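Try this one yourself first.
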């Protein structure tokens, strides 16, 4: 009976062992624990539709935008390359926009230029024009090459396609035609110099942009491979434990302890890594309402940090500069060399309409931690780059340090305090006397109580 059972269950032992080793090797190779991958937003540096290396949407060999050939035949255009759902039947009436344009009806034309509504076929044509899949006058004009339709982790100075679409949502096709063919900005005049769109083509692009304005930028789905590996390891652990304690089907005694050991190590590693990472977000770089570059303002133009963040030396927070600070320069500077007029127009519009920009905070310590810029910048003389990294070279602000307690304590143990001509530290008379008499050559933050719990947690 024992031999029969052994022969019956032994064939399943080797896959069980092999799967456990695959889980561990895959996790080590990826170098990422499950749960941490899901928060990563992929960036497409080229700013074009997914999988596009050449600036042309995928699946174009047939001359039709990806996923559209069959959709048009079936009366549906839901599978678009940009990943954005097209307008529904209620938003695309059956009347042909081309027919209205060709009819010469001025009133109908004005109405059409305001709504930019048309058939599904015209919607698809507008999408193909936007991605440069058709060649007016034998010349490719790809809007998506500059105006990305996907989330990107790098700074694209050009406004993304959704921003442009929302700005022109309630404007006419004539307004869009003017900015495409007769732009006033220096940069746009240079980029759009060879544009040769017909009124019908601009109407078709407007039709696609109106639909695009109702959606956001396309985000790549997060990878779930590490999560699947973690679940598989849990299942292996419980199955092996169940067999070892209760069923005892596996007769080779060394297999269950081996599987339990390997899976337990992996599960423990995953839990510890994610527990340590809880609440920490190095590399965090959210999309801001305005594409502001510290590299241009601080490094290139030489603007001092305190000019904009004037609260830092004497306040708990460094503060977000008021728009009046921005307007000190941008009353005159209305166009950027790389950004053109679009981004600076956001500042002036916000200032004139008295509606502040809603900036997203990047660096933030937990609520149970007290941190004061006045203590570090004003009294301690700490340079901004010591905590924020070389922010003067950043075109897009990101969190460099993990802002953990260990990171703060290590700094307090090594950071030397300037006692000379510093009114704040004159109260530490004993340390000042030792420094003056030469009994010690330097004083660290730790020696002034910088590692005491109540200094930061009270």
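Now uncover the answer:
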């Amino acid at each position: 009976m024992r031999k029969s059972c052994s022969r019956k269950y032994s064939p399943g032992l080797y896959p069980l062992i092999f799967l456990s080793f695959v889980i561990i090797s895959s996790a080590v190779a990826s170098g990422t624990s499950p749960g941490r991958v899901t928060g990563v937003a992929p960036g497409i540096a080229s700013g074009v539709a997914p999988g596009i290396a050449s600036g042309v949407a995928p699946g174009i060999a047939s001359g039709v935008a990806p996923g559209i050939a069959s959709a048009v035949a079936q009366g549906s255009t839901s599978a678009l390359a940009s990943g954005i759902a097209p307008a529904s039947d209620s938003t695309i009436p059956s009347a042909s926009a081309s027919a209205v344009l060709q009819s010469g009806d001025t009133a109908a034309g004005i109405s059409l230029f305001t709504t930019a509504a048309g058939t599904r076929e015209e919607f698809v044509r507008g999408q193909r024009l936007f991605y440069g899949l058709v060649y007016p006058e034998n010349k490719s004009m790809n809007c998506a090459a500059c105006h990305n339709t996907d989330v990107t982790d790098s700074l694209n100075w050009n406004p993304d396609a959704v921003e442009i679409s929302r700005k022109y949502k309630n404007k006419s096709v004539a307004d869009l035609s003017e900015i495409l063919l007769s732009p006033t900005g220096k940069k746009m005049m240079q980029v759009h110099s060879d544009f040769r769109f017909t009124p019908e083509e601009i109407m078709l692009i407007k039709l696609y942009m109106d639909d695009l304005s109702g959606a956001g930028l396309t985000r790549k789905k997060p990878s779930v491979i590490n999560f699947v590996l973690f679940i598989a390891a849990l299942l292996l652990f419980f199955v092996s434990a169940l067999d070892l304690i209760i069923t005892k089907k596996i007769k080779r005694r060394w297999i269950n302890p081996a599987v339990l050991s390997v899976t337990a190590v992996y599960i423990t590693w995953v839990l510890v890594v994610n527990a340590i990472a809880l609440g920490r977000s190095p590399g965090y770089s959210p999309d801001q309402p305005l594409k502001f570059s510290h590299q241009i303002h601080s490094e290139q133009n030489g603007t001092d940090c305190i000019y904009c963040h004037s609260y830092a030396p004497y306040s708990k927070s460094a503060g977000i500069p008021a728009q009046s600070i921005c307007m000190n320069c941008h009353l005159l500077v209305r166009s950027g060399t790389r950004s053109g007029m679009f981004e600076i127009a956001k500042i002036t519009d916000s200032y004139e309409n008295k509606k502040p920009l809603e900036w997203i905070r990047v660096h933030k310590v937990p609520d149970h931690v007290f941190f004061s810029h006045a203590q570090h910048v004003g009294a301690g003389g700490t340079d901004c780059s010591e905590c924020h990294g070389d922010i003067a070279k950043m075109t897009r602000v990101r969190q460099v340090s993990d802002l953990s307690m260990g990171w703060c304590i290590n700094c307090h143990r090594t950071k030397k305090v300037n006692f000379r001509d510093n009114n704040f530290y004159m109260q530490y008379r004993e340390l000042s006397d030792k420094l003056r008499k030469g009994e010690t050559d330097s004083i660290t933050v730790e020696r002034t109580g910088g590692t005491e719990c109540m200094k930061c947690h009270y």
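Discussion: Strands lie at 416-417, 443-444. The longest helix spans residues 225-247.
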